[in-house]
Structures are given as structure tokens and as C-alpha cells.
Design brief:
Radius of gyration: 22 Å
CATH superfamily of the largest domain: Type I PLP-dependent aspartate aminotransferase-like (Major domain)
Strand order of the largest sheet: 2-8-7-6-5-3-4
Order of helices and strands: HEHHEHEHEHEHEHEEHHHEEHEEH
Oligomer: single chain
Bound molecules: 4'-deoxy-4'-aminopyridoxal-5'-phosphate
Shape: globular
CATH topology of the largest domain: Aspartate Aminotransferase, domain 2
Structural class: alpha/beta
Number of domains: 2
CATH architecture of the largest domain: 3-Layer(aba) Sandwich
Largest sheet: 7 strands, mixed
Strand content: 5-15%
Length: 408
């Protein structure tokens, strides 16, 4: 039987008395997951500083990154090694820099710097990743939210907007296990995106494949070769692919990758040469020694899955038990998040109630441009970081808050 409001309030008071300190906010690996990569703390080891061709990696040079590591990730990401650069410690800074380069200098095939474009805009499928939106907001780039419809991209709207508005120069895409919905783009959707007519010749897809190998089930969708699809469609320069090892090894101390058409890679290489003489190749060597091969990466990801699969299962079980009929949520088969939709107009209240009893949840609206969720309904849950016991307590407490907010 459903809990009455009085029962919920009593439960909430009991939770308050427990003086909880639980955190569901950011998608961070748990300490056990970080332990999987602890060999990095000792690698590459004394005397190991050359790549396969004998280059001394302790010195300047090699702006494209370590060829052997690029080959491994090229295979995983379906990008030819020559078109994939291994860069710094995080892909977000590469995305940031690409946007800045486009604003200041324009992109290949374009008509000039994007800062001169009237009504410059970027499409943002929502709910989406807050840090993508933060980049646009920081530079005053207009963001146009395009809500997913029944868990799919709204291709009709996207096609129409891109065809009629020449101010639209980009679109954020997380093609595999989208943050936060877990949505995986299909081949047909990808072909539509790379093939559609665009009013701007230099329209770009910011193809953030952050979760390309982050599976939670045996149903592992293959990575779509977006660069070949775009070339076949006559728009080889449209996709700009980003990825990193942040959620494979250590976030913040990983390796970022940038992949694109030869034109775009040459453009990025030239712009970056002003910024840096080259990336941290010893960190890349450490990663090569730890991961070794594509199979090595896959084995590593299976070990991650073994740790986090039970956490996702626990979240889904608790949501099912407590919020059936009240809220809806994603059932991701990979990635890092569960996306919870509570009754319209109640997400902020539920999150505030949770905050008051020591359960930190990502602020309401975070998954929308300008933090504006018009329905005030979406809550992003990040299950990986807390221990299983803490996670279960936090989700159960959040459910009480959702029910209380909905009952108000
Ligand atoms: N893209 C997406 C979709 C993410 O969810 C994250 C991490 N939360 C990142 C990029 C950040 O990656 P990095 O650490 O390489 O900057």
C-alpha cells in the first residue's frame, strides 16, 4: 500500500536524525574502480621511456601523441590512426579549445570565425551533459534545446532547424550511452545526422564518445564509424570526435583523444601548435603499458562492469519498489547515469528536501542549457561513486523526498 503523507514525513524525520552525508552528484568512478588502474602509479618504470620506433618520450616532440596508443583507441573508436590524436589529460578541454578555435578562427570549409556569425547557435539534445552546456554559455553561444522523444533523437525537429537556420553551427552528441539518459544512437540516426542538409556549410557534430566502451550488459552496441558515414554522405568534415580514458583509468590523469577528417585534424594540429609543443607522452606510455591492446581495454572495462553493475541494479530495484507509478527512469545498458523523471514541477523541491537531510543530488535543471528544465522534472543519478550500502541508503532517501515533493 502507498505510504501516506504522514508516514513519509515520519520517514523523512528519521532520515534527518541519521545525519546522512551521501553524494549522488558527479559521475565519478568508485575507489575500487580506480584501484583497477593502480599499476599506473608505477608505470612506465625506470628505464622505460621509448616508443616502438625508439623515440625518447621524455623530450619535446610528437604532437600527435603516442602512435601505439592512438592505434589501440583508433580501433576501438573506428578512427584511422592517422586521424586520431592522443592529447592531454581530459577531453573537455579539447572540446573547449575546439569551440574557441572555431569562434576565433573558423573551421575548415567555413566562411570565417564563428564569433562573426549572426545568431550563432548550437543544438542541444536534452536532457544532456551540463559541461557541454557550460562551454556554450561561457562564450555566449545560443543553445537550442531539442528534447528526446520517447528515448530517441527528434530528427524531424533537428533536420528542420539545421536546414533553415544558418546561425546553427553545431550540435552536441553523446552517441553511446548518452549522459544522462543512456540513449545509444542507431546507425540510421547517425546517417541522418551526417547526411542532413544544413543551411551552414560548416555545421559540425560535436561527437563526444566518452562512453564508447562502457558497457553494463552483454549487449554491446558496436561503435559507429561516424567519419566514414559522413564521408559517404558528402560531409566528411562534419563530425569532430572526442573521447578519453577518464572513466577507463583515472579521471583527471587520463588521455584525451580527438578524431576527425584529415582537413579537421590538420586544422586542429595547426591551432594547437601555438598552444603546446606536445602532450604528456609519458602518461600515454603508462596507459599503453597498462592497457596493452584493444582486448586489454575490453578486459579492463569488464572489470569495471563487475564493480558497477550491481550498483546500477540496486538503483533500478529501489526505484521500481518505491516510485512505480509516480516517476519514470532510464534503464541504461552502459555509461554512468540513471535519468529520473519525477512529476512535473517537483524536481527542485525533491532535490532541496534531499539536500536538507544530507543527500547531495545534482542541482535541478543541470541537464538543461542555462539550468532551465521547463518541466522541473529531470534528476540525474550517478550511482558509481558511493559504496553499495551508501548508494542504497541515498537512493531510498531520495525516493522518500520525491514522494514527499509529489505529495505536496
Ligand atoms: N563527456 C561526457 C559525456 C561526460 O559524461 C564526461 C564526464 N562526466 C566527460 C565528457 C568528461 O571527460 P574528460 O574527463 O575526458 O574531460
Amino acid at each position: 500500500m502507498d505510504a501516506t503523507r504522514a508516514e513519509l514525513e515520519q520517514r523523512y524525520d528519521e532520515l534527518r536524525a541519521q545525519k546522512l552525508s551521501l553524494d549522488l552528484t558527479r559521475g565519478k568512478p568508485s575507489p575500487e574502480q580506480l584501484d583497477l588502474s593502480n599499476a599506473l602509479l608505477e608505470l612506465p618504470g625506470v628505464g622505460d621511456y621509448r616508443d616502438a620506433s625508439g623515440t625518447d618520450l621524455r623530450n619535446y616532440g610528437g604532437p600527435d601523441g603516442l602512435p601505439e596508443l592512438r592505434a589501440i583507441f583508433g580501433e576501438l573508436l573506428e578512427i584511422p590512426t592517422a586521424q586520431l590524436l592522443a592529447l592531454g589529460n581530459a577531453s573537455l578541454s579539447t572540446m573547449h579549445d575546439v569551440v574557441v578555435h572555431a569562434l576565433l578562427h573558423g573551421v575548415p570549409g567555413g566562411s570565417g570565425p564563428w564569433r562573426d556569425v549572426e545568431n550563432l547557435a548550437v543544438l542541444c539534445p536534452v536532457p544532456g551533459y551540463d559541461r557541454h552546456f557550460a562551454i556554450c554559455e561561457a562564450f555566449g553561444i545560443r543553445m537550442i534545446p531539442v528534447p528526446f522523444v520517447d528515448g530517441r533523437l527528434d530528427l524531424e525537429t533537428i533536420r528542420r532547424l539545421v536546414a533553415e537556420d544558418s546561425g546553427i553551427r553545431g550540435m552536441w552528441c553523446v552517441p553511446m550511452y548518452s549522459n544522462p539518459t543512456g540513449i545509444v544512437y542507431t546507425v540510421e540516426e547517425t546517417e541522418a545526422l551526417v547526411g542532413m542538409e544544413a543551411a551552414a556549410v560548416d555545421f559540425r557534430l560535436f561527437w563526444d564518445n566518452a562512453y564508447a566502451v562502457h558497457h553494463l550488459t552483454d549487449d554491446e552496441p558496436p561503435v559507429i564509424d561516424v567519419l566514414s558515414a559522413a564521408a559517404r554522405a558528402g560531409h566528411p568534415d562534419r563530425p569532430l570526435v572526442f573521447a578519453s580514458t577518464s572513466k577507463i583509468t583515472y579521471p583527471g590523469s587520463g588521455v584525451a583523444f580527438f578524431g576527425a577528417s584529415p582537413n579537421n585534424v590538420a586544422w586542429f594540429r595547426q591551432r594547437s601548435s601555438v598552444q603546446t609543443i606536445g602532450p604528456d607522452k609519458l602518461n600515454q606510455l603508462r596507459h599503453l603499458r597498462l592497457l596493452r591492446s584493444t582486448d586489454g581495454v575490453r578486459r579492463h572495462m569488464s572489470a569495471h562492469r563487475a564493480i558497477i553493475e550491481p550498483r546500477f541494479a540496486a538503483v533500478l530495484e529501489i526505484l521500481e519498489r518505491r516510485l512505480s507509478g509516480v516517476a519514470t527512469w532510464s534503464r541504461p545498458t552502459g555509461g554512468y547515469f540513471v535519468s529520473l523523471d519525477v512529476p512535473k514541477g517537483t524536481a527542485s523541491r525533491a532535490i532541496a528536501l534531499a539536500g536538507e537531510i544530507g543527500v547531495a543530488v545534482t542541482p535541478a535543471g543541470s541537464t538543461y542549457p542555462y539550468r532551465d528544465d521547463p518541466d522541473d522534472a529531470n534528476i540525474r543519478i550517478a550511482p558509481t561513486f558511493p559504496s553499495q550500502t551508501e548508494l542504497e541508503a541515498a537512493i531510498d532517501a531520495l525516493c522518500t523526498c520525491v514522494l514527499l515533493a509529489a505529495a505536496a
